[in-house]
């Protein structure tokens, strides 16, 4: 990350490549079907736990809030540094089959799941 001072107005703007809303629910199948009825077919779905449209994703991951932002970044370390500089709580990093993610929570309660794709081996 550069030595540039981080301010409340600079934030994550240049770090996030894509941000969508994520809805997590234990009723994944029904909710994904409802969203599909409204928005059409998802861009991606694994058919059992995840579906993604342009601006919305539906997940069965219920260990966090029901609604959050899902933010893709190429530089997860810089994203974590900015979060800390802004006074956000930085959660535990988890590595999955397709991504590495870190939950971030603003002082006002907004949760952002920052993630970067896991390099193919």
Number of helix segments? 2
When the domains are counted, the total is: 1
Per DSSP E runs of 2 or more residues, the count of β-strands stands at 9
Distance between the termini: 26 Å
**CATH architecture field:** Roll
SSE topology string = EHEEEEHEEEE
What share of the residues does DSSP label as strand, in percent?
35-45%
Instruction: Please describe the biggest sheet, giving its number of strands, its sense, and whether it closes into a barrel.
Output: 9 strands, mixed
What is the top-level CATH class?
A: Alpha Beta
Shape: globular
Oligomer: single chain
Structural class: alpha+beta
Fold and architecture overview:
This is Glyoxalase-like domain-containing protein. This protein is of the alpha+beta class and 121 residues long. The chain has a single domain, classed as 2,3-Dihydroxybiphenyl 1,2-Dioxygenase, domain 1, CATH 3.10.180.10. 18% of the residues lie in helices and 36% in strands. It has 2 helices and 9 strands. The relative contact order is 0.21.
Write a short abstract of this structure.
By secondary structure, the protein is α+β, with helices and mostly antiparallel strands. Helices cover 18% and strands 36% of the residues.
């Amino acid at each position: 990350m550069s030595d540039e001072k981080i301010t409340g107005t600079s934030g994550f703007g240049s770090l996030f490549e894509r941000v969508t809303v994520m809805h997590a629910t234990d009723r994944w199948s029904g909710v994904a079907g409802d969203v599909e009825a409204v928005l059409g077919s998802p861009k991606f779905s694994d058919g059992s736990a995840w579906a993604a449209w342009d601006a919305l994703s539906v997940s069965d991951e219920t260990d966090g809030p029901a609604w959050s932002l899902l933010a893709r970044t190429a530089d997860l370390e810089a994203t974590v540094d900015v979060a800390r500089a802004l006074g956000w709580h930085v959660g535990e990093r988890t590595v999955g089959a397709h991504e590495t993610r870190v939950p971030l929570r603003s002082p006002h309660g907004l949760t952002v799941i920052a993630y970067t794709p896991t390099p193919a081996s």
